[in-house]
Amino acid sequence: MTPTIPFRLTSDDRAQLERLRHKPGTTRKVCLRADILLAGDAGKGVRESARELGTTTPTVMLWKARYTAGGLAAVLEDAPRPGRPRQITAEKVAEVVERTTREKPAGATHWSTRTLAPVVGLSHTQVHRIWRAHGLKPHRQETFKVSTDPQFIEKLQDVVGLYLNPPEKAVVFSVDEKSQIQALDRTQPGLPMKKGRAGTMTHDYKRNGTTTLFAALNVATGEVIAECMDQHRHDEFLVFLKQLDRQTPKGLDLEVIVDNYATHKHAHVRAWLTAHPRVHLHFTPTSASWLNLVERLFAEITDKAIRRGVFKHVRELTAAIQAYLAVRNADPRPYTWTATVEKILAKVGRAQSALNAVKDSSVPVH
Predict the structure, then answer these.
(1) Do 257 and 175 touch, CB atoms closer than 8 A?
(2) What are phi and psi of 56, to 5 degrees?
(3) Among 307, 237, 306, 230, which residue's Cα sits nearest to residue 266?
(4) What is the reported pLDDT for 155?
């Protein structure tokens, strides 16, 4: 006859096991242990508990004995599993991070897991795990440039002020040209997307001409006034400014944010602005196109209307762009600018400090 191991659950242990038993994330083995203890607490014998729970009598006896000897902690906390102890020390991890961020391999611009692994004495999978834990991606590189415009702060305050505190009785437009948009046709038809496979497109293409998109983003409403033209000289820019003037109510001033492209400062443009005093141009600092909100629109158009398109003629390209903008203007949504002048200056200051550190040392700063 199998002996009965007498024990009783405390009220707190019983309540904890009940909660654990009905918790969705509890594993099956923990649920079984909880059931064994709860059955024993209800006065059921070892064989009866084993039969009802679909397990063996030794298993029932094991977990009841563990509870008696060490309480609930001995039941819910597994003993250390056998296996090889961790071999990557903190010093080795620090070495991987240091070499990744401060050094370059011979004859290459950046490390890969397989080139770094033999240098630090680890496997490439171990190097990969360390990189992932520290957010290191040597294969990726982003672009940036700190503006050297001597009037950077004044122009920054002017443009950000228009975004955050637009003047009354005025419309703020973010304006720019997206030039050299290519009408590309593929050499073979692509295959459509289907379950388990992405759509396909040939890597090679035929060039069928280019167009330039002039766009004015209404900062307040998100509406876009746009026109595709063959070139992007001062003549075309002036034509577009006249279009903005015609399509905006005469009682409102036009505050137009543009970059420092030479066509925006041409003598003919300045003469026209003098004759139309309600139109004011506001220039972003040099090398600071990120301050012009219309750049966000251009990225959106490229992603959703141009990159995957197949165009046998420039007319098809311009039609696709206009169709996308028509849909967008039917339900316009403005981009929300949140960065203050102070936050931008602080970020630019950190970037400038990092650049100065690099100039003073041959070691890259991350």
Answers:
(1) yes
(2) -105, 160
(3) 237
(4) 93
